[in-house]
UniProtKB/TrEMBL annotation:
Upper lineage: Bacteria, Pseudomonadati, Pseudomonadota, Gammaproteobacteria, Pseudomonadales
Keywords: DNA-binding, Transcription, Transcription regulation
Protein name: Helix-turn-helix domain-containing protein
Annotated HTH araC/xylS-type domain residues: 234-330
Keyword Transcription on entry: yes
Source organism superkingdom: Bacteria
Species the sequence originates in: Pseudomonas helleri
Length: 330
């Protein structure tokens, strides 16, 4: 929970649009995330990766192979200013190096790298940092989207030479062929795909040095904003996490942060959240952990999380997850 950081609504919006054709209401996919339908209309909305992963978990519960489809739809235009900076780079290699420089703007949950091996280049995604239960989904989404980005940049398909995945072969592995039409290895030491080295020097059709310089500078500033907010929010979460049994309130938290309540409220708003949002998020994560890993009665969990009445905790948990604590535990 405490490693959760800020990201955009790109992935969430993609999930919602993918299921919209099936007539599935947004509320089903947003359940337990704390994201409101009204938030989706604001281009400046920032959410945490924890919230994003809850929406993805809801999607995976409906369709386990959805990561492949989402990755195929995650075009370079989904990445805002970073996308424009990539498109206007001189070569594919230049664009990929720029993307690796700003992982926060990519919203990746992996450590990305390029490894040149002879005439091959391996685009690798290692050191996954999110929920283990969503590891396969996130691997499929990440690698599929990276391939799409490469093809968007050069304006034509890229023939892959090989692909490898750390997870075991899923029962829907035939679907991999539409994205990874190459020899595929499962239970591998890392997640990666390979393409011919000469593509790194391929001049991009939309290269523009002046626009690229301007966009790259805006990416640098946005990255500073993202990482600065992440550090600041991580400090707040750390403070709140040890006080869930007796939350300090906005005023008390502001004092602990050596800030005024007004300033703290404004900074939280600029980060796309609020004191209550953060408190609820921490309580929800702790509640899920206690329900899974302990046999504590519900009333004790409620007390530990700072609820004066068990009924209040039950109502809050239903609001967060869509089910009662007892149902979640079962």
């Amino acid at each position: 929970m405490l490693h959760s950081h800020l990201t955009t609504l790109n992935a969430v919006s993609l999930v919602l649009s993918t299921f919209k054709a099936q007539g599935l209401p947004c509320d089903t996919l947003l359940a337990g995330s704390g994201i409101r339908t009204a938030d989706l209309s604001r281009s400046d909305t920032r959410i945490t990766t924890t919230q994003e992963m809850q929406v993805c978990a809801n999607a995976v519960a409906l369709r386990r192979e959805i990561g492949l489809e989402l990755g195929q739809r995650m075009h370079v235009s989904s990445y805002g200013m970073l996308g424009y900076a990539l498109l206007t780079s001189a070569t594919l290699g230049d664009a990929l190096q720029l993307a690796l420089r700003y992982p926060a703007l990519l919203g990746t949950l992996f450590q990305l790298s390029l490894k040149v091996e002879g005439d091959e280049v391996w685009f690798c995604a290692d050191h996954y940092t999110a929920s283990p239960s969503l590891a396969i989904f996130n691997t499929e989404l990440c690698l599929a989207s990276l391939k799409v980005i490469c093809e968007d940049l050069i304006g034509q398909p890229v023939a892959l030479m090989a692909a490898r995945f750390t997870h075991s072969r899923p029962d829907y592995h035939e679907r991999y062929a539409s994205t990874f039409d190459c020899p595929r290895t499962f239970n591998a030491p890392d997640n990666a795909f390979a393409f011919a080295r000469h593509w790194l020097d391929y001049p991009l059709p939309l290269a523009d040095p002046i626009t690229h310089q301007a966009m790259a500078e805006r990416c640098r500033k946005q990255n500073l904003e993202f990482t600065g907010r992440q550090t600041w929010l991580a400090r707040i979460r750390k403070l709140l996490a040890v006080q869930l049994h007796a939350a300090p309130g906005l005023e008390g938290l502001a004092e602990q942060m050596n800030s005024s309540p007004r300033t703290l409220r404004r900074h939280l708003h600029d980060a796309g959240c609020s004191y209550q949002n953060l408190l609820d998020e921490l309580r929800f994560e702790r509640a899920k952990m206690l329900l899974h890993e302990t046999e504590w009665p519900i009333y004790r969990i409620a007390e530990t999380l700072g609820f004066s009445e068990t009924a209040s905790f039950r109502h809050a948990f239903i609001r967060w997850s869509g089910v009662a604590p007892s149902q979640f535990r079962a």
